[in-house]
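User: I'm designing a mutation panel for Reduced coenzyme F420:NADP oxidoreductase and want to avoid disrupting the core. Could you give me a predicted structure to guide residue selection? Please restate the sequence first so the numbering is unambiguous.

Assistant: Good idea. Sequence first, for numbering, then the predicted structure tokens:
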Amino acid sequence: MTEATGAGVPEELTVAVLGGTGPQGRGLARRFAAAGVRVVLGSRDAGRAGATAADLAAATGGDVTGDDNRGAARAGDVVVVAVPWDGHGELLAGLREELAGKVVVDCVNPLGFDKQGAFALPVEEGSAAQQAAALLPDSRVVAAFHHVSAVVLEDPEVAEVDTDIMVLGDDREATDLVQALASAVPGMRGVYAGRLRNAHQVEALTANLISVNRRYKAHAGLRVTDV
């Protein structure tokens, strides 16, 4: 199998991004497309997805198309879930058949906000990623891309996204692929960070980064040392 974008990323790989017209999904799609990965944007509105995809294709020179979330789920080999937490469970429950056999990358952070700032919400299954795994028993669920700033991802002036991506999952082949996908983006590095049962604290750490960003007026990421 040939590789084009980086070690471990097959040339023919298609990445679908559900919620691809929102800031996080759109930003990840931009970076994947710029790295030479074929991308399909998913949205509740196929027309909106198509228009956003056309803009990203023009901006990056990449292969980007759009569809509704169901069509995108069918098209992707790897499917990134970048939807708001309050619609997470309902969306995935309705796409179980389309996502069967696929690597599903959950980057959703279950967070609440009040006058004191962001805080982690309790999740019955333990984390958003574990909820995804429970709803998608025939998929290979990986947790990743929780801490990368949408503002940075979408900024065309940022040539390298200076951050490590914590990748969690129970399937070695799937986590290796997602690590390679992250590492295909200049500046990013995918780092294996444990089993899916440890996704809660990774998702929750986003609340701490939001506090860092507010205090220091920054778009902070993470680096893991000595690896």
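For picking mutation sites, this is relevant: The mean pLDDT is 96. The CA atoms of residues 169 and 225 lie 21 Å apart.
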